[in-house]
Give the backbone structure.
Amino acid sequence: MIAQGLLIRGQEILMVKQHVERGDIVWNYPGGGIEEGETPEQACIREVKEETGYDIEITSLLMQSPQKYTFLAEIIAGELTVDRTSDVNEDIIDAAWVAITDDKKFDRVTKPMLELLAAQNAFKQNLFI
């Protein structure tokens, strides 16, 4: 199971550029595997911190599927950084705030979450700044 966090700043969303198992390099939402003894929320908080340097607080569950929990979250501390010395980040190339209009960064996996957020007017109302 995977837990990922969606963090919004105005018209941007936080993403990580990473190598994925199929061998591609993609932009994805920060997140990763739920470890034994962790709740999905705890995993999301840990993964976002490991991949981006941000401490977050979960605000709501956006979507749950058999393979993945997707949470909306807010930054409560930290600054954007990728710890390249950590083994847990060996697949991470970069982390950045990505404009929601930058279609080149979104694919068949990430685009549906963006559309779900747009349907909830999360960007227009800047609910998660």
User: Anything to note?
Assistant: The chain has a mean pLDDT of 90.
